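Quick bug: LytTR family DNA-binding domain-containing protein output formatted oddly.
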Amino acid sequence: MKVLIIEDEYHSAQRAKSLLLEYDQNINVVDTVDSVEKATNWLVKHQEPDLLLVDIHLADGSSFDIFKKIPVKNPVIFTTAYDQYAIQAFKINSIDYLLKPLDFEDLSQALNKYHQLSYDRKSIDSLDIQRIIQSIETNQKKYKSRFLVKFGDTLQYKTLDEIAYFFADDKIVYLVCHDAKRYIIDYTLEQLEQLLQPDFFFRLNRKVITKIASIATVKAVYNGRLLVKLKPNFESEIYVSKERCSEFKTWLDQ
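Here's what came back:
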């Protein structure tokens, strides 16, 4: 059996490979790629492997983007630290959906299911739909209610009520409070999108995630974009692209 691993964390990729070989020494891990772009290029240039082991959250975006760009017919086992993706994952030939860190028992069950799939795919898929939906309904996503920050030598926490917005400057992400004080946090904006309650937080562009209460004004400008002013004032102008305007307006109006 040939397996392609799509994973952007080196140690997670190595663990996945080790567990695969522990399950069956004859498994051939044909390659390990760490981004949407590299995975897409690999699948275009090579014959599809028998199975894909795919981390949902990659360095350059969601692995779902791979399957939007190119057709992938072979089965997929998804892995992630976040459980809200399960139903979307299932729609893309998913055999199973495993939470990190991977353990041998869970991966073994998923691989056993892969082998069963070749004999009775319809019944396996039907069972998966019910199991995954029940899992999501039973284990609802818990969003963060506070963030740990460092102020000098002192550790503090900031609640959501204190937070105005988050922004990225190069590779550093800052939490900004209503009093305009900012703190460096150990999260990427992509991670924050999954950790923040979407009813109250929205990613305006590549640099900024704001809370609804921190929006001062929204103004339509040229090229179909929206100009957003935040409070406290952000250091540069913030635009919502034409492509995201409809989603942003829906979020404002819910």
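Actually, after a second look the formatting is fine. Residues 123-140 have pLDDT under 50 and may be disordered. Closing.
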